[in-house]
Design brief:
Blueprint lengths: L4 E9 L2 E6 L2 E7 L1 H10 L5 E5 L2 H4 L5 H9 L5 E4 L5 H10 L3 E4 L1 H5 L2 H10 L4 E9 L6 E5 L4 E6 H11 L3 E6 L11 H8 L6 E4 L5 H9 L4 E4 L1 H4 L5 H10 L8
Parallel strand pairs: 1-4, 1-12, 4-5, 5-6, 6-7, 7-10, 10-11, 11-12
Antiparallel strand pairs: 1-2, 2-3, 7-8, 8-9
Helix pairs in contact: 1-3, 9-11
Length: 253
């Protein structure tokens, strides 16, 4: 049986780890190399690194930060934020990323996902979906550019297209829950799980193991969190111990 993954997220702004609420009010949360190294020692199964400022400011993810983080990691590293071309994605993979995530550029140019998949394989391509509840409360729409652009695209339809486009995994972030520590958007997660067979990483809102258990029971293959790790509220290994007691298959040290 495949184990379910615990993934700390490093949101990067100008080479520093930051954290905010709903992609805004960012505060400094440390050095990415130190954080990645600590999370690996604490039992993380994977690290996700997202340049949260790259798309809005038009800057590319800093390759040197990827290289520096890669030097201290032996676990998988996924990188996203501002990836707008195959060449940029290939440069990130060459710098040490195992997978690359695309969001805004995929919405604007869906063919990018297929082009990437053809070059490096679907297993290296993550479709990052930032989803927000529609203003009328009827379903969810895809948001891009750090949540500032509501696209009108139905999030479930977009998730359903992921495999067809060439993605191998979905990183599903609830814009409404991001940084709130109120729990994952379970209804959104269940709805996405119902339209795709791809692995789904749940993101946005985790505060403790119960929230993660809820996400796994809703169909998540992995859970991503940031604040609880940056604040040293808990560790991946502590969460795994609690989840294992509830019957979740996790990789223990």
């Amino acid at each position: 049986m495949l184990t379910q993954r615990i993934i700390p997220c490093l949101d990067i702004d100008n080479g520093r780890v930051v954290k905010g609420v709903k992609f805004a009010d960012l505060r400094d949360a440390g050095d990415p190399v130190e954080q990645a190294q600590r999370y690996q020692l604490d039992g993380a199964d994977e690290i996700v690194m997202l340049d949260v400022s790259a798309t809005t400011s038009g800057r590319a993810t800093a390759l040197e930060t990827v290289r520096a983080v890669r030097r201290v990691l032996s676990i998988p590293l996924s990188v996203g934020g501002g990836i707008r071309s195959v060449d940029h994605a290939l440069a990130l993979l060459a710098a040490g990323a195992d997978k690359v995530g695309v969001n805004s550029a995929a919405v604007e140019h869906p063919e990018l996902v297929g082009d990437l998949s053809d070059r490096v394989g679907a297993q290296c391509v993550v479709l990052s979906i930032d989803a927000a509840l529609r203003e009328d409360g009827n379903g969810w729409e895809v948001v891009t550019r750090a949540g500032t652009n509501r696209t009108g695209i139905d999030a479930l339809a977009w998730a359903q297209r992921a495999a067809e486009m060439g993605a191998g995994e979905i990183l599903l972030t609830s814009f409404d829950q991001d940084g709130t520590q109120d729990g994952y958007a379970i209804k959104l997660l269940e709805a996405v799980r119902g339209v795709t067979d791809l692995p789904v990483i749940a993101s946005g809102g985790a505060a403790h193991a119960r929230h993660m258990l809820d996400a796994f029971q809703a169909g998540a293959d992995a859970v991503l969190a940031a604040s609880i790790f940056h604040n040293q509220t808990t560790t991946p290994n502590q969460l795994k111990s609690e989840l294992a007691e509830s019957g979740v298959e996790v990789r223990m040290p």
